[in-house]
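Subject: two folds for Thursday's group meeting

Dear M.,

Sorry for the delay on this. The cluster queue was jammed most of the week, so I only got both jobs back this morning. I'm pasting them in the order they finished. Each block is the input sequence followed by the predicted C-alpha cells. Could you check whether the formatting survives your parser before we put anything on slides? The first protein is the one we discussed after the seminar.
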Amino acid sequence: MKYVSQALLFFMLILLSNISKATTMCSTSDVTLTDVQLVPEVQVDPFPNPPSTTIPTTNSSDCVGLLSGNDKPYPSGGGSHNIGEYGDGLLNGAVQTGGNTDDSLAPFNKLFDPFYNESDPLDPFELDGSEGYNPDLAFILPSDLQDLDGANDGNSYKTDPGWVYLGKEEGEGFDYATAGKGLLGETNVGSVVDISFSCAVGSIGGECVSGAWSVMPDYNIANTLFDLFGDGVFDHLALVFKTGNVCEKEEGEKGKPDCEKGSNFAIYDFNFNILLGGGLDLSMPYNLGGAFDLDTAFGGKGISHISVWARDPAFSKEIPEPKSTMLLIIAFILLTLRHRAQRK
C-alpha cells in the first residue's frame, strides 16, 4: 500500500506540473496600444515619449507563448537581406536555434514556416505551385504571403512572409538592424525610426517586468525606404519579450551550465489591418505608443531583451505621377526627334 501511495503521489505531481506548464501562457492584454499620432512634418526636439495623443487602450491582436529558449535566429549572415524573405529569421520560417528549443519551432518551425506540413513534417509543402501552405501560420494567413522568391520560372507561388527585423533592446539602448543588406536602398533602421522602451521598475536585463514602449518614424520614412519596400505599407508590428536566462547544471555535470534552460519568450502582434483598417501607410507615418506588463506571463521573471519586427505586406513600386508625366514628355521628345531624322 505504501508503494501504491507513493506511485499515486508521483503521478499527481507530474499532472500538476503539466497543468502548471499548460496554464503559463501569454495574454493579448499583456501588451497594449495606447497612443497613435500623425508624425508632424517638423518634429519638436525633444519629442514627447510616448506620443501625446491617447486612444482607448487596445490589446495586442494576438500572441504566442510562452515558448522555450531564445527568439533566434534573427536575419543575419552574408545571404540575409532582411526584407522579409522566406527563411530569413525566425518569423520568416527559419528553424529556432540555441541550446534550448521549443517543440513548436524546432526541428520544424510550425508557427512561422509557410510550408510546414503537419501530416508529413519530413515532406514539407514544396515551392512548386502545389498550392500547399501551413494552415496554422501565426499572425498571418497564407493569402498574406507574397511571391518574391526571385526565381524566373513562371512560378507564382507565394514564398515570402514579409517580416522585417528592426532590432533589439537589451537595456543599453535599442540596437537597430539594417534593412535591405547588400541591396539598393540599404538602410539602418535607426535612421528612419526611433524605438524605445522604458521600465516602471528596474531595467531591461534586470528586474523590469512592465513599462512603456514607443515606435516613432521619421516624417520622410516612405521616401527613404522606397527602393526597398515600394509604397511602404506595413500591416503588422510584433514585439518579442524574453525572460532572463536560468542557468542550470545537473549534479555532477561537468562543463558550463546550460543558461537557456528555463528561459521563455512570448510574441505579441498588432494587426493594423484590423486596428487601423488597412495597414500603416508610411507616406502618412504615425507615432505609436503603448504599455507592457509581463509580470503574470513570466511569473515574476525579469525581461532579458525585447525584439521588434514589422511586416511589409507587398512590394509595390508605382511611379509617382510627376515621374510618369516626365516619362511621357521624354517619350514624346524622342518620337519627335526620330520623326525628324526619318524626314531628313
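Second protein, same layout:
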Amino acid sequence: MAAGRGRTGRAGRAGRAGVTAALAVTVTAGALGAPALAATPGAGDGHQGHHGHHATLRAMRAALNEDAPGVTVQAKDRHGAWNAAAGIGDLARQTPRGAHDHYRVGSITKTFVSTVVLQLVAEGRLGLDDRIGQWLPGVVEGNGHDGDRITIRQILSHTSGIFDVMSDEDVRRKVFSEEFLDHRYDAWTPEQHIAIAMRHKPDFEPGTGWHYSNTNYVIAGKLIERITGKPYAQEIEQRIIEPLGLHETSVPTTGPTLPKPASRAYTRLSDAPGAKNHDVTELNPSIAGAAGGMISDSADLNRFYTALLRGRLLPPKQLAEMKTTVPKGDDRPGQRYGLGLEPFKTTCGRVVWGHGGDIHGSASGAASTADGRHAVALNFNGPEGEMKAVLDAEFCGKGKR
C-alpha cells in the first residue's frame, strides 16, 4: 500500500495508512513535537538505565502527537532485551500503550515473503531471473504489462514497473477515505488486486526504474503458492514462524481482530478540518494480503530480523542477493532497496537493515545491525510517528556500540 506518497496533509497520511515502502518512507515528521500525552510515563522493563536506553525513551515520548498517541518498542543488544511503551493505547479509556502489544506490521510482511521466495531459489525450485510469466502465465498482462519480460528479482526489488493497486482511484476511495468504514470487513483476493493493477499502464519498462508497488508482493504471494502448492501464509508459518518460535506472529487471511495484548489503532480518513480520528483497529487483512497483512510484536520482529541477518534463514548467496540494492530514484536521493530488505543510514553513520510498514492506524519499523547483535522494533498506533528519531536514538545514543 504506500499509495499517497508525495501528498501532504491528512489525505496523504491516510494514503500512507497502507503499507509503506520502507523505513525511510515510514519515517515521517511528528508535527507537534511532544504534546501533553507524550509526557505519560513509559512502561518499561529490563533495567532501561543499565542498558543505556534513556535517549530512546526520550525520543519515543517526543515522537508522539495527536495522530500517533502511543508507541511500543523493544531494543535488543549485548545486554539483552529492553521493552518499553509511552503514550496512550486506548483513547476512549485513556489507558496506556502496552510494552508487549501485538500490532499490524504492514509492509514488514514483504521481508517474510521475500525470504520464502529466496528459500525456494536456494532449493533450486526457481531462479531469481526467471520470468514471472513462466510461472504465472497470463497473470501479468494488459495495458503494456507483460509477465514474460519481468523477472522475479524485479518483482522483489520494485523494479518491475508494475502499477501499484493502491494507487487506483476506486481502491483509494474504498481504502483511504471515510468510505473505508463501510468496506473495512470486505474480502479482497489476490486475483482482484492484480486485475485492478492490470487496468493501468506500467510505471516504466521493466528494469529501467524504481517504484514501490504492493502489486509486486501480491504477485510474489501467488508465486509461492504456484511453486509449493500451498498458500504463502502457510509457507511463512512452516518456514519462518515455527522454526524461529515466533509465537506472537501470525499471517491472518481474513480475521479482523488483533490478539491480546493490543492497543487500539487510529487514523483520520479525511482532509476536512476537524476530521474525526477513527478507531480502525478491526479490518479484513486481505486488503493488504502478501503485501502487508501480518501481525506480530516487537520481540518477534527483532528475533526474525536478527535470525535473517545472521544467516539462519537463508544461505550466504541468497542473503547476499537480498542485500544487493538498487537506488530508489531521484526523488529519494541516497535511499536504496534490496529484495524486501533495505539499508537505513543513521545520523551517526551506522547502517542497519530492516523494513517499515504502515497499515490503517499502525506505523511500524524494524531494523538490525548486519551482524544481528543490535536490533530495534517499534510501532505507533497511528498513521505516522517520528521513527527516524527513535532509531537514531537507539543506534547512535550515548554508549551505543
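Two things I noticed about the second structure. Residues 11 and 271 are 5 Å apart (CA to CA). The chain has 15 helices and 16 strands.

Cheers,
T.
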